Amino acid sequence: MSTNLEKSSDTGTLADELSGAAVTVPSGNAVGDYLRHYWQRIRGGDMGSLPAVAALVVLFLVFSIVENGFLSKANFASLITQAAPGILLAMGLVFVLLLGEIDLSAGTASGVGGAIVAVLLLKNWPWPLAVLVALVVGALIGLGIGWMRTFLRVPSFVSTLALFLGLQGVVQIVVNSANTQGNLSLQSDALVALENSNMPVWLGWLMAALLVVGYAVQKLLAVAARRKRSLPTEPVAVTAAKVLAIAVLAFGFTFVLNLNRSPNSAGGTKIVEQNGKLVTVKTGGEFLGGVPWVVPVILVLVVVLGFVLNRTRYGRHIYAVGGSDEAARRAGIRVNAVRISVFVICSTMAVVSGVVLASQTAVNAAQGAGNTLLLAVGAAVVGGTSLFGGKGKITDAVVGGAVVAVIINGMADLLQGKNNSAWQWIVTGLVLLLAATVDAVSRRRAGSTGLG
């Protein structure tokens, strides 16, 4: 149990931020010692989402070579909006998976959330209040699952499978109550803008700058806290490299997204009447650029949920229960409360995912279902979260969600014809199977080397 508690509070390595591997800071502060210690952790099976990061790089290289339009500005922005609902749902599933549990109802819970928001908007409710009601419903769903798991001892696989089926009926009832012939649209410009509109260019740059500065400040505070407790700290060069890597990623993404991706950017001509005569005048091109509004939503949730897991006593308790619930109970941790709470968080995040998915589709606000769930579970596991509990980070959901989105997007353009979607599912399934196999092998290796 102590190992999990330590991992959740360490400053970690570059992989903590970029690939999610949990690494304890070595006693020395030389870069060489630091890297050797990190390599020992990898050899011992503690790879985090490093395989997912490597897979993401390989996929980008392969699809950019075989598909001309894969790295286009428009497709780059499309990748982000396509991945957003799955990433958000995967964030909630990380909490459940950390305890070795599963929530098969999360996909349909997202559909319930999207449907509730859409129906309340049709009744002229303010969108913040409609979203709040949906979040409360999501929390109640999670509370029910946690109660059944904790007090009735119903396995989460069974109870959430039952809810997966039952909540599909609830979605239909909610949709039918709106009398829209099953085509329930999202009547809110603010919510639709999440997936279909972009931030002003200047605001995107400001967000990137705040992200880099905030990350740098967090790293400095972490180093200061460890020095105050007379604990070893990572080398200054490593800290600087991490900040530089985050800066390159943040400003690089912002630069690409702020480019004009409109097909009519060059402008054209039109004929107008001036002083009784028809004349041809030049028209300015359209501008379609900026960071999608869903990006700051994801970033805020990554920061908040990451802080909860890595910097709070509650987060340490989650890792402890995931490592050994009996040992956690003997240590005075309220295991039942922790178990219930993770299901509440998961179902609440499912509603957030459902609202974003409703924003993406715009005309079918109750679309969340099994496909979204399966892709989200795949994203969390591919990203590095263990199916066996006790191991995982919020960033795993982001990295894994990016891998899944790249596979689906790249395969859609690469393979045309009636079997296109079939091959997308086959490849995604194989990637998930590979990730689960790597997880199982890594855990066995970590156990045999004493690093697990």
Automatic annotation (TrEMBL):
Residue spans crossing the bilayer: 50-70, 76-99, 127-147, 154-175, 202-224, 236-257, 287-309, 337-357, 369-390, 397-416, 422-441
Compartment annotation: Cell membrane
Key words of the record: Cell inner membrane, Cell membrane, Membrane, Sugar transport, Transmembrane, Transmembrane helix, Transport
Pfam assignment, any one: BPD_transp_2
Principal cellular location given in the protein's record: membrane
Top-level lineage group: Bacteria
Membrane topology according to the record: Multi-pass membrane protein
Described purpose of this protein according to its UniProt entry: Part of the binding-protein-dependent transport system for D-xylose. Probably responsible for the translocation of the substrate across the membrane.
Protein name: Xylose transport system permease protein XylH
Species the sequence originates in: Flexivirga aerilata
